[in-house]
Specification:
Blueprint lengths: L8 H8 L6 H105 L2 H5 L2 H30 L1 H14 L1
């Protein structure tokens, strides 16, 4: 059987040695050579695949690290946002409470003013009773003078009683003299 022609670079060297080896051995050696070459190609292909897989794994790890870093950044941003939102809500609630307190104080102030005005109006209406409207000016003046005299008498009486309470002996002396004079 004639020797096979070499088709690869390693086979070219084999073809040069083909005249020295018997045909059966050449066939067996050629078969083994092809198996070795196939295995070498397979090893190279596996090494390339391994390199590709290693590069792919590194790329995946790199992406995973980026993803993880991005996730951590988003969590941090979310927590910061939540904290800011809570602070803003707290400030807004305090501001609303302050405004509500101001409104309440203003209402109370207005209510007190309204009540004082109401009391003043009632007092004025008492002073200007229906009696004043149905009497003539002379009668009103006389009535007012009588009221003032009555108030002055009451005030004098109160002063006298206060004085008498302070010095009971003197009061007794005055009463005794008054009785003697009578």
């Amino acid at each position: 059987m004639p020797a096979r022609r070499a088709s690869g670079s390693g086979e070219a060297a084999w073809g040069a040695l083909a005249f020295m080896i018997p045909a059966a051995l050449q066939l067996k050696a050629g078969y083994e050579f092809h198996q070795v070459m196939d295995l070498a190609r397979l090893v190279r292909a596996l090494e390339i695949a391994l390199d590709d897989e290693t590069a792919h794994q590194k790329e995946l790890e790199k992406r995973q690290k980026k993803r993880h870093a991005r996730q951590e950044q988003l969590k941090k941003d979310l927590n910061d946002g939540i904290a800011r939102k809570l602070e803003a809500e707290k400030w807004q609630a305090e501001e609303e409470k302050r405004k509500e307190d101001e409104k309440t104080k203003e209402k109370e102030r207005h209510e007190r003013y309204r009540q004082s005005q109401k009391e003043r109006l009632e007092k004025w209406q008492e002073e200007r009773s229906s009696y004043d409207f149905f009497t003539d000016p002379v009668e009103r003046a006389r009535f007012k003078r009588m009221e003032m005299e009555r108030e002055a008498d009451l005030l004098a009486l109160e002063k006298r009683e206060a004085k008498e309470e302070r010095c009971p002996l003197r009061r007794l002396e005055v009463e005794a003299r008054l009785q003697e004079l009578e």
